[in-house]
């Protein structure tokens, strides 16, 4: 297959005419849309938001090409197979998994609209073609930075040598003058080894404050409580595999919506359970598409009130068991947990309180009855009592929780409440019985991967700092108020939580949508403008690039040389499948793989790049496949996956030893995926916590007591040592916090509560720039019919959503399936803040959110309260309708 030249790519896709993306607009507006060339505007109008329409127009089915398995790097958790039909290095078509006939045993890994639009994402009009420097920025800090012009300035094209020299000079100055912790790494360190796991640690470390955008309070000392954290995603290995779920009498989804969030196999597994006749219950503020697909019974619960709901369920279960005597498994509760009541407290308890005393009102004279919770949650007391009876020991129950319900200040101990309820009914450690959060590739199908990628060579000869997995790094700004703290030059210390002066001097943006995904975008912009230096490496002109000083064009996973260490190992699987995608193009235009960018910077920073990265990336990726293993039919033993001869290894130009496996190397490369089929009675089943449940003495948990800690002194002490605004209890309860947002809502100024669902237009912040998806899925705000009627709003109206921290524009979607008083803001919109008008015209939900370090060291998005009004000018062009354009000053 031919490799693509830059010239042939431009000719095929008309990218030369479209230039790049979404850059900086005139000074009156920090937007990404106002300076389109006529050519780009014409292409947008004809081509659903991207010039790639010309690829389709010129495609001839008779052209010789091949189907190539390629990466789908969308961070949704669906884990799907993509194949591109490649002609002369150009992806002309996209399809999904059709390798085997779809069946229950061997399901197809089918892609959703986001995956099918990946071509527009990789090769769209916003592709960064060459290094760029902001016109008025110069190294040296202070007035040289002209930080106030970030997001407004023009850009100029520079060479790679000039870009590397400028970056290295400024990075070295900052490290020498302020230390390595003055560099704020604005990315996801697990996904990329080049900068966060190698280069910055070799320089001495960095500060990371991305925070836990997904996990909420599930990340608050899960190991101390006894919730499984072995996969690095709190609790996600704490539920069973997909076949075990089919043994349930009832399946509960508490906030989950995989039909939109992870529209691949996670939603499929639930659909199969529904087809098997298992009843579902959905708990949350809206009757979402997943609940509708499963015909679930809906218990409406307002955002931030799930802890109150679970407290009442525990109370009512106690009352019902007192009457019937058969709903709580007391033997299980007392043999596997500590801290439920006064007679079963852990030895290290400092507080004479526990969850039973709390729900019965022993400490505040307020029993947590169904009526008490109904007033808070918005559901009926009868719903709570009904649910309490259903989750008693007489039913086999699978209780799945979304991380989203734990992203608020009232949910600091919500995981302990969920754990308590599961243990009361013994819904854990048995077939058809499970509890815990479901997330990404583990959703509804947990257990060790049946296909494991091979070990790859790592760098040698450089001793990196060892006080974290990434080398020395400080979490001092990871607390909830990070943007505001950075903008004001202070923040909580990473160890004690005390407020200290900690000046950040540089933001280094890489993976993820850092500015977009964090709460309080408006203070985020201020923080970016405060820096001496902001560097972004990316393949498209995302918002972080807009507010940078130097932008380096990175290649995509579809291009040779991409640094795929953590990307592939971390993301390219579900339990039964592992994906082995290919690259098919040389890096386009002047882009470089992230690892090559890191190597060049390392050289200029005086580091030994050859010692840090001694092996070619292609060799390492070959080892990942060569050394891959697959679980044998005994369910225990792992054996080689691929068969390959020594002659073939030498033909490929790699090092390695021949061996026999279960699939030929070349066949696997053509397929791009290996899937282990399941069937009833096989040996691949996984029951979470089974060893501990069957033998708690012989297989104790890694907690202070060896049991699940419904009262956990270790967790409470760790959280309260972080300088929080309220005291965290050692047991599950509703964390009371009378914060700023609560006061605003109580005053009637901002009466509506926000929740942020996923949405098929994008996965987190990825794909919000893709024209196909913008046209297919508009940027809505969900309003209940009652709230909309009160405000004179109809579906399709342009509305303002305003909070105490900002204002955005969105398109109203009026629905009957949403609780009054709640507003749904599907998350991930790229911010386009018109500073003159004081409004985000692309409706980034984080332009109206803010975080408080109130009751946990995690992002509390759902504390947000807003008011929604019909916008005065209904003719204003929404961002969806404007073409993507080049940054000002670039041709």
UniProtKB/TrEMBL annotation:
InterPro entries registered for this protein in UniProt: Asp_de-COase-like_dom_sf, MoPterin_dinucl-bd_dom, Mopterin_OxRdtase, Prok_Mopterin_Oxidored, TAT_signal, TAT_signal_bac_arc
Molecular function as annotated in GO: electron transfer activity; molybdenum ion binding; molybdopterin cofactor binding; oxidoreductase activity
Signal peptide as annotated in the record: 1-24
Region (Disordered): 30-52
Metal-binding as UniProt keyword: yes
Cellular component aspect of the GO annotation: outer membrane-bounded periplasmic space
Domain Molybdopterin dinucleotide-binding residue range list: 754-849
Pfam families, sorted: Molybdopterin, Molydop_binding
Gene3D superfamilies membership: 2.40.40.20, 3.40.50.740, ADC-like domains (2.20.25.90), Dimethylsulfoxide Reductase, domain 2 (3.40.228.10)
Oxidoreductase is among the record's keywords: yes
Ranges of Low complexity composition bias in the record: 30-51
PROSITE patterns (alphabetical): PROKAR_LIPOPROTEIN, TAT
UniProt domain Molybdopterin oxidoreductase: residue ranges: 127-604
GO biological process entries: anaerobic respiration
UniProt keyword annotations, A-Z: Metal-binding, Oxidoreductase, Signal
Domain of life: Bacteria
Family: Belongs to the prokaryotic molybdopterin-containing oxidoreductase family.
Name listed for the protein in its UniProt record: Molybdopterin-dependent oxidoreductase
Species of provenance: Xiamenia xianingshaonis
